[in-house]
Amino acid sequence: MIGQAVEFAAEQHAEHVKWQMMDSHKNCLPTPISFKNLFLAQEEDDDESASLADVLAVLAEKYPGGRPFQAADVGKIINASGDWVDGRWIEITDEARESRATLRDFLFPDASEKESVSAKATGRRLKKHVGEPVNRGGNTLVLKTMPNSHTKALDFKISVLSPSAACGFAA
Known about the structure:
Blueprint: H1 2-18, H2 35-45, H3 47-62, E1 69-70, H4 71-79, E2 82-85, E3 88-91, H5 94-107, H6 119-127, E4 134-136, E5 139-147, E6 154-161
Antiparallel strand pairs: 1-6, 2-3, 4-5, 5-6
Helix pairs in contact: 3-5, 4-5, 4-6
């Protein structure tokens, strides 16, 4: 709330100087402020948000276009080591192994490689990061939730906002 008022005041100040309704200090020209952009710039330097950005990027690739997924789906990725296909065991690909490691390292940093994770535990850990915007490749990624009336479980989705869509307060 306060950030929005400060952003508005800075915008108004810049407009007043632009239209010569008031003078500005010669060493301190008015500049628009975006607390969202400042927050995202700060988050880029934070190791935890970088990991969250990696996790959201993995999930956005796995579930493109905001396609919904559930905590159980993420748990299956984390627990995967291979699959039975036509009666024989097939190891997961290097890409799948990397995705698995990214998700496990961030959501379950203290769990061993062999330890299986539950959908409930995965859901609890994902919920902690709902609504946290992170920068990744020039886009803003945000984990969102929505109730699924059919399965009675919570669906997650990744919103990918381009830089122009991420301006202001729309999320």
